[in-house]
Amino acid sequence: MPALPEFFEVVRRQRACRTFRPDGVADDLVEQVLEAATFAPSAENRQPWEFVVVRDAGVRARIGELTRQAWRGGGRAYAESRLSPQLLADVDRGAEGEVSAAPVLVVVCVDARRTHETTIPASIFPAVQNLLLAANAVGLGAALTTLPTAFALELGELLSLPEHVRPLAVVPIGYPAHALGPPRREPVSDHAHRDRYGSRW
Amino acid sequence: MPALPEFFEVVRRQRACRTFRPDGVADDLVEQVLEAATFAPSAENRQPWEFVVVRDAGVRARIGELTRQAWRGGGRAYAESRLSPQLLADVDRGAEGEVSAAPVLVVVCVDARRTHETTIPASIFPAVQNLLLAANAVGLGAALTTLPTAFALELGELLSLPEHVRPLAVVPIGYPAHALGPPRREPVSDHAHRDRYGSRW
Predict the structure, then answer these.
(1) pTM for the complete prediction?
(2) CB B87 to CB A45 under 8 A?
(3) Which residues contact B137 (CB under 8 A, 6 or more apart)?
(4) What is the structure's pLDDT at B3?
């Protein structure tokens, strides 16, 4: 990897990583990745994000239990008929334990006092995306997961979140256990329209 | 700007641009920016995004009216007590007309048939963020706006959106009318926690 990765190269090689080597991730790398997250836009530039960086094995294991519970309690049934067998197997291994086995779990929360309810997603997920891209840029693997946030109350209790701080995503970070291939994406022309929906781009 | 902008440089200089030169933006640049958007992650890799690229002056003017209506009908009153006078003036000019005067408005929608209701924000706003970053990377200005989506029905009618396709953001794209300074952000340490909320990073 070059010292200064090129922007579009990072964008084009982003893949969800759900299986990690046990090696730890240095604090300064975690901080570099979090700093990138804080440069995302937010409604009124309110920066309502809070990042709980979990390294504690017990806390990670408990987040893993909540993930499994959400997966077995509905996530899997919903996904089963929709995913390719290969992707389903990958997500299944992740939800059953490999994601929470990442050395670092970043629980991304919103401080709901800082922003209007309607602008929460637009103020948090861009930061999550910066976090994911930055992790990729420095050679780490990461993934955007939301399954454990189905148990927001339990997660809040586990992480001592005040009532106004709500978890929206859990991002596992670590060194990928194996090389990730290129992402599979449909062409722009399948998703772009000119002036009106259905008008060919 | 270098031909191949460095990833972290693009991340660190991202700023909302709300005032644009009238110069048009070539189709291939728009496509490069949209392609970057399609490399974002989405739940189950369902890629539920649809991009309506609006250049038509009449349609842009109508989106401008909806933006003004949302701004005057509540957005401004909410923002007034919360924003610095400088930011308020900037947003005010944008909402009153300068944003919709951008040569290109990308209306980012979700195809709700493609994804579960709960995963819509996590499947759309990362793509919006890629779009914004990519615009910055190629020297364009852009901003994440959600005001006009308060009138989703009117916007849907204007853009011939089917019922299952809902607008979530409107991103103006064009060449910045003036240089944008560096973004203002709070330090990571104000937003990061170790293992539990409130435990110093």
Answers:
(1) 0.96
(2) yes
(3) A7, A8, B5, B10, B36
(4) 63
